[in-house]
# Entry
Amino acid sequence: MMNQTEIGKFIAKCRKEKKLTQTQLAEKLNITDRAVSKWETGKSMPDSSIMLGLCEILGITVNELLSGEKIDMESYEKKADENLITLKKKDENNMTKNVIISILFSATLLIGIMVCLICNIALSGNLTWSLIPVSSIVFAWVVSFPGIVLGKRGIIVSLISLSIFIVPYLFLLGSLIKVKEVFSIGAVVAVTSIVFLWIIAAVFIRIGKERKLVALGTTFLLTIPFMIIINVILSKMIDEPVLDVWDMLSIFLLLIFAFVCFICDYAQKRD
# Structure
């Protein structure tokens, strides 16, 4: 059974044997020394993406890292099996929980669809307005289901689903409510928004694992040009001003939020 506290003590012991400070180890792994401190105090575990690099620097195996001790050759295979079983059980438990949540989520949306259809038929005798909420519910399910069932690994799948289905959904919605602007304007804004979301995803993949505050601050800053681009698009299509008082206030608040995130990250690095 893996023990985070013991693993943390083992990391600290190996680091000291290599005559490395927390800051030096963090620099070699391109992370913050605060992350190393959290490992060594048992508050968190090294991310799987940097485990091999950490083990190489400390001169240990992944199996020894997960065991929290040096392993002799006689017990190596036994420890490896125990660690693999523990990791597998942890993944299975997480997957089981996600599957249960996704089933409950799907059942709730299905009930919503049935209620809309039944009420529409009972009141109108055929399907009219119910197709609008039903199509929206189905779209929401297609986009959100991968993220729910797969957890963090499903976020990118959900983003791919959103990228694929948002334009067809807007076309269908515009046809159902018979307002062509829903598709003509909505599609342009949606495509721009999808590009923005992919950029944000790239930011968090690149630096968000160990420096979430920097990634969040960067997101706030990137939101400003995105908002201006959207406003320019809308001003061309529906003759709205590019920036008004509320937009200026939003930009000011985004700058403050970004500044706070960067300051907090700097303070964490200094701790």
Remarks:
- Residues 146 and 157 are 6 Å apart (CA to CA).
- The two ends are 32 Å apart (CA to CA).
